């Protein structure tokens, strides 16, 4: 079932090592079929150079395996919960890309310091609260999804306008309308984290961009008045 | 029209990923035909591995498309304005190369700390003022060109002697007598930004080179008494 | 003798340059045959692209060469001592990977700042004491092993739970149940050292993970209740 | 003339881009024939991928061209002076490798912080004094050699025991008994500069290694009691 979606999810997973976003098996991409309320995800702990489209696992929105000969990613309950709660997203990416992890470990939001950031993220990328002992010891991966959703609700951030989060002490999740856009956003996150790190080391002054620059660059690429790129 | 210039501009654009100056589509090169008062530029948002010489777009000095089946780079009005105001430049490069962006985001001039810098840039590479709300909300890309020109006028810098700028909160533009030299200058800018960053972290002392070292290295490579390289 | 082990040790050594863990010849992998009380190790100072399985050297637990036409790694007595004292390890890796070396040179434990660390190391990776003048001037490489063992004993760390050490002023040793796992652990060490470095530069606050997160992530991947990856 | 030396110098020059020590044409290697009092050096400003053995230039110890159809490296008078004054060296390398340049620009000696350094450099790699206005404005490249020699004399450093220098505001020169060893030393210099930078950012404490560790590691690899590597 979902053969073409499996092939697509396989291809999007294979972009992670090409974009230097993963070490060993530390990353996964999923994509959803909203009609069927199912999503396809990478199997757990399988090396990228051994992966095939047929290894992809089909899961439902509770994280149960519907089809597949391998265990799905251990982060599957996080993906499932986000598909439930963020109804506009079509794909999710989790990595341990090192610059984004550094901000997650430092417990710091990734500030919007320039147009590279503003082109993709309409404001700072938030760091989540740390999971509590109770949240970690039971349903850890689902609770990771709950904490992500709560982060966006508490800060009143639209997850489609800022399509990524830094899970504190852990690392980034990114998403998008499609899995391809989610992978794109995961890479942008890593690049702007690298830029922000060096900017913050050069100057501890707050060099966040003003709202009007955020508006300009974000809406130059998104929404009905976008004029970057080619007409579809 | 301008078929050989299109091929040349295509080739210079393709150097950007090879020199590790771009992520995704975040860069563009243009070159000018001064006789015809036209320039050729990369189309907007097209991936480098899908680009062909035929995709290049011909524009006039107001930034209007004269020929081409694709939209030109969204930065086209910046290029157009710079070709108007800097009459000796033959090519322009814009990238989001991460070390140069870090200085642009920090709002810091890139100081001349050594001979690697002095060989190409006859003094600090200036950071521009931030664009105002009004400048951003109307004719943003043209105003970016205006702010660049103003930066060089206000600081009395010759744009041929310091062929690059850091647009604050945004990133670098570089230029040169030819597009090939502009690409070269864009790469030098990235390398000397990396070196300057680490130097500044090692010592916060002002370690700018003296004027006579700047003279020696810049004129060893430029002007009538240059003796670096081979006679042409 | 031990032909298949030689081939295996050769292959594990060849992973070091692929994983960007060595410059020139600065690294070595060994693996043990516990029944025979022998181990196989890379020869000293031979370039990776000239290495063959047949060049591997067989040594006993005193570090004496039992078979081989080349000198074994100068670090052989360290390997020998660790095989004696850490009875559960099957392979050992030594490198001068630059992020791990930076912590070793700074004389700092590598703190557990996130789940990437906790997935592999059940607590901080300790830095050893510096060897004394006497320890350096006689039996230096054996004494390196003695200092490593003492580090784990003094801090009451189980070397199977934290399978790596930073030898002060020198660099990392990693180990594991197999040489393949030791190489894996050596790479994880390098990646988490990079992440920890940047985290510590962003915030000097203690951002070590709590014990319950360490438990969760370490036991998600290790021991009888592990659920990461595929059933063997 | 000196055809085999030209081929050798060509090959050693071609190692620089492979070892990631040069951007564009910013590096050169020479090797000497002590009997003939001549040395062979890379031509000035020629791209590495266009270089051929036949392009190499033969010079005497005053820096005059004896044979060659191209201009020699602009740094030729520095090489010539060092061959005069350091009678045991067989090859010289100059690069603008970025970590070494960062220390040169900061005006800081590269301290000996660990065994990776001590294996090759028997103590800190010194930064030279800055050249004076007069030294820069006349015979600049020869004066660079004079300043290097003076640095070693003033600090009573044996150039064979510490086979590299950081020319202040400029960058590294490295040398060795052969050009191949000089290239090796240039790479070690870059790697230990990277490690030292990160160590110094982690701790501003003086973590220089003691004399007895320097002795142990340097003499483990050099001199009559060396036991690293294979017998020749």
Automatic annotation (TrEMBL), chains A, B, C, D:
Keywords: Isomerase, Metal-binding, Zinc. CDD domains: Aldolase_II. Residues 7-197 form the Class II aldolase/adducin N-terminal domain. It comes from the Bacteria. The keyword Zinc applies. It catalyses: L-ribulose 5-phosphate = D-xylulose 5-phosphate. One of its GO terms (molecular function) is L-ribulose-phosphate 4-epimerase activity. Its EC number is 5.1.3.4. It holds the Pfam family Aldolase_II. Its cofactor is Zn(2+). InterPro entries: Aldolase_class_II_sugar_metab, Aldolase_II/adducin_N, Aldolase_II/adducin_N_sf. Belongs to the aldolase class II family. AraD/FucA subfamily. NCBIfam families: PRK08193.1, PRK12348.1. This is L-ribulose-5-phosphate 4-epimerase. It comes from Lactiplantibacillus nangangensis.
